Amino acid sequence: xxxxxxxxxxxxxxxxxxxxxxxxxxxxxxxxxxxxxxxxxxxxxxxxxxxxxxxxxx
Length: 58
Description:
The chain is an all-alpha fold. It has one domain. It has helices at 2-25, 44-49.
């Protein structure tokens, strides 16, 4: 019985974190910053210095 409750709590915590992360990803980005803040991105310094309207994404 205790193991079942523990498993359900872990599943609920995991689903809560997934929903939180998904909602955080949908937030509106800052207007003047074209960089999404990706960790480990080699272009993050160059990308962050460009205004959004100057980047041509195809």
